Structures are given as C-alpha cells and as structure tokens.
Amino acid sequence: MGVDLYFTLGELDPADVQNRTVVVVDVLRATSTIVEALANGARAIYPTTGTEEAIKLISSLGRDDTLLCGERRGLKIEGYDLGNSPAEFTREKVDGKRIVMNTTNGTQALVAVAGADRVFTGSFMNLSAVAKAVAGTDDLTVVCAGRGGRFSLDDAVCAGAILARLGTEWAKDSDTSDAARVALQLATHATVDAAFLAETAGGRNLVEIGMEADLELCATVDRHVLAPAMVDGTIRLLPGKGT
Amino acid sequence: MGVDLYFTLGELDPADVQNRTVVVVDVLRATSTIVEALANGARAIYPTTGTEEAIKLISSLGRDDTLLCGERRGLKIEGYDLGNSPAEFTREKVDGKRIVMNTTNGTQALVAVAGADRVFTGSFMNLSAVAKAVAGTDDLTVVCAGRGGRFSLDDAVCAGAILARLGTEWAKDSDTSDAARVALQLATHATVDAAFLAETAGGRNLVEIGMEADLELCATVDRHVLAPAMVDGTIRLLPGKGT
Questions:
Q1: Beta B140-144 vs B4-6: how paired, if at all?
Q2: Which of A126, A164, A212, B120 is the most exposed, fewest CB within 10 Å of its CB?
C-alpha cells in the first residue's frame, strides 16, 4: 500500500483525500485535546474554521450542554468556555458535553479533510490506537496540521510514529510519497518527551505563554486507547472501535 | 543567526523573504540546469512562470541569441529550443546565449522570491560555492522548489547539505525553524548519489521518462564552483563571486 503524507495544509487539495483513510495530527494541541476530551466523557467534538462559524454552530446546538472552546496564539479566545489545553478538558468540565472547537491549525485541517472516506485524529496520546484503527488500509493519508501553514516537527514525528507502527511494507511501495518516508525516518531518530516538544517551534511558543505543562501531557504516548473518528463533520468515539 | 527554510512554495508568503538572503533549490532539475548552463557560457537565465510570459519575454529579447527552454512533466515543451535536462545545456548550445526558462517548480520558486535582498541558486552541483556565498549572513532563508507543491526529498536533503556547510551555530538559535533543523538532519543521514535521487518521487519520474542519466549529473557534488545570483529577475554569475 502506498502511503501519502502532508506536512502542511497548503499542499493539500481536498480532492486528494476523497476515498482515502485520513489521520489528522496536531500534537500541539488540537488532536491531543480531542482525545483527552472524549476520554473524559465529551459526547462529540465539532471542529470549525473560525469564530463566526463556531458561534453560529453553538447557537443552533444550544448552550445548555455545549462548550465553546479554542485558541488564538495558544491562548483561550475571549468569551469562550475553554481554550485548547488538554489539561482543561477534565471529566468535571466535559463529561456529557458537546464541544464546538475553533483552533488555529488543527480544526482547519479537520475541516479540510471532511470529504475523505474515513477520518481519525492522531496524537502521541493515542498513537497505538489510531495506528490499529488504520492498519491494513491500502489508501492511507496522514495530514499534519502544521503551524500557521508551516512545517511542524512535532506533527511530523508523530505522523512518522503512527506509520512506524504499521510495519515497513508500505515504505517500499513506489506510490509512497517522499514525505511519508521522511516522517518515518524522523520518528526513528526522535525521543518523544516534553524536552523534545519544547525544542519545536510550537513547543517554544507554549513555554513562552506559560503552558509548559501541556508538553508533558501531549508527550504521554498511549495515554488513551482511543481512536476518535470524524463522521459527517463530527468527531466521536465509534462504538466498539479503538476502545 | 536564525535560519528559515521552506520545504514547499505554498508555505511561502513573498513578504517573508523581504530583506533576506535566499537560496532556491530545485535539484531535479532547474537549479542544476541553471548552474550547468552558466558554467557552459550562458550569459543570463530569465526564469518565468508560464509559457505566455516566456513567449512574451523572448519576443522582446529577440530570438537571435536567446534560447527558450523548459519542461512540463519533465519533457521539453513543444516548440521550445531545449528542455530542462542539464545534459542538454552544452557549451556548443548555450555559450554566449541568454536563456528564457519555464519549468514546473524551479522557475516558480525563483519568481516567488524575487523580492528578497539577495537570491542564489543552489544544487548538489554547486553546493560548496553557494554555501560560501551565503556564509556569515544572519538572515538566510532556503526555499525548496518541491514537486507540484509537495515536499520533495531531493530538495530537502540538498537544502540541509548547504546548511551543514555553514557550521552548527545557527541550529542552536531559537529563531531557526523546525524545517531547517530537519533538513540538516536529513542531509546528515543521506548519501548523495544517483541511487539516492532515483528513490525520490522526482527521480522515479525521470527514470520513467527515460532521463535516468540526469540523476548522475544532478548528484555530482561540487561539479562547479559557481554561485549563480538573481538580480532584478535575471540569473547571472556575479563578477568575482563564486568563481
């Protein structure tokens, strides 16, 4: 099976992922936060591309059991219920809630691949579960959210780590892209921990804005055995899958 | 000095390179062809973004001493004088000529960075010369042309190899981008030869269209001690520089 991989959203034409199985990766922090929220009982996550869309959506869903969450420059957006730190998405806060999410990179990536056959969210926190969910597919595309449209090392290494769990046959396929091979190589040479994340551009930004603790959480490999899936634009845990 | 690097053109906002020193890399094959052409006596190279622009430019320059060169899908464009294989740009063909060039990736990248302070073209064929030309600048940006807007391993490794020749201080700078560090790492682990290029997506395409011989040429590290520079949209050898 040939594997494709996008380091940045700008490379992606939504038509490229039609009929494919996609994993979206935004280690710092959207896909880490998504799996943490679902693990703590959130019913569903609604990714949006901007505040206008997020406000409109939460108005139609009703605010009773829905939280509005997201960030700009890493910080909670004014008037929102929560930011984008996985540490905020505790069971106390999110159990039974729907979550409308609006972040700089991750939710843009999720919306961009909405036309794919299947979409999962991947992070270090659910590395093995997402790899298991996509194992054996012959049409896998991994999409890194990146950082402001730029290459992001944390996402690239996580994408490679997911691929590393799928064996090595795919890497020999002539349809496998240069980027997929490079991600595998990067993952092979990386040690995943908070110090690694702190050296990436995204990690440096979190340290600067006082959110260093998130690095420890986002670097916790296999904290959850869950593979969140996006169906009709909404991310949920599928019954009997990845649990 | 912080070093920036773009794996793909889609990540680049032309404003990002204002006041910066830029090296454009398109190993397969535009920047390899450019240095070969100038080494064989071509007077100047005019990069263009499409056939319409190329035809208009050659009409104004006059066809007497100007060649129209370029490719689509790797093959010479119908009616053009030459394609984009460095092997075609012999002294017999190009000595004393001006060259209007129109390729899928490389000339797009060159035009995109035309607003930079200084622009050089880099390839394995002039690796040391281009590194020497930019050594000591504190505002270096390397731009990989990529392949159809996608990440291209040959360009990434060449970009990293140029950076590797600039010592290691820059890699410690917190302004250095994730991509620059990754390119350095890729170059450290790569063996540059025709077999390496043949395994990249761009190289596989050249093998498929019967241009495998170009891989040997494009992998010849330091074949030329020349650092072509683009001034006012035209690429030339600067007197006394990189010769």
A1: parallel
A2: A212
| CB of B152 less than 8 A from some CB of A | yes
Could you read off the pLDDT of B114-135 as tens digits, one per residue?
999 999 999 999 999 999 999 9
Is B177–A150 a contact, with Cβ atoms under 8 angstroms apart?
yes
How many Cα atoms within 13 Å fall on the side-chain side of residue A35?
32
Question: Phi and psi at residue A17, in whole multiples of 5°?
Answer: -105, 0
Q: Give me the percent of chain A exceeding a pLDDT of 90.
A: 92
Q: Which of A:26-85 have CB within 8 Å of B?
A: none
Contacts of A178 in chain B (CB under 8 A): 147, 150-153, 156, 200-201
Q: Is B178 on the interface with A (CB under 8 A)?
A: yes
Report CA-CA distances (Å) from B12 to A67, A103, B137: 35, 21, 20
Chain A contact present for B7, CB below 8 A: yes
**Cβ(B229)–Cβ(B120) under 8 Å?**
yes
Give the three-state DSSP class for A164. helix
Question: What are the residues facing A48 on neighbouring strands?
Answer: A102
Would an 8 Å CB–CB cutoff place A164 in contact with chain B? no
- Predicted pLDDT at B170: 87
Over chain A, what is the mean pLDDT? 95
pLDDT digits (tens, 9 = 90+) for A128-137: 999 999 999 9
Q: Do the chains contact at B178 and A200, CB–CB below 8 Å?
A: yes
pLDDT band (50, 70, 90) for residue A240: low
Interface check for B201 against chain A (CB to CB < 8 A): the answer is yes
What is the spatial distance between Cα B149 and Cα B10, in angstroms, rounded to a whole number? Answer: 6
Which residues is A98 bridged to in the sheet?
A44, A66
Cβ(A220)–Cβ(A125) below 8 Å? yes
Rounded Cα distance, B242 and B240, in Å = 7
**pTM (2 decimals)?**
0.95
For A73, B94, B140, the CA distances from A27, given in Å and listed in that order, are 15, 51, 28
Query: Which residue numbers in chain B have pLDDT < 70?
Result: 1, 240-243
Residue of A nearest to B154 (CA): A178
The reply to whether B151 touches chain A by the CB within 8 Å rule is yes
User: Torsions phi, psi of A136, nearest 5?
Assistant: 90, -10
Element housing B144 (H / E): strand B140-144
Closest residue in B to A202 (Cα) is: B178
Residue A238: pLDDT band by 50, 70, 90 thresholds? confident
Cβ–Cβ of A7/B10 closer than 8 Å? no
Listed in sequence order, the residues at least 6 apart from B67 whose beta carbon sits closer than 8 Å to its beta carbon are B81, B82, B93, B94, B97, B98, B99, B100
Angle, vertex CA A149, rays to CA A144 and CA A154, nearest 5: 40
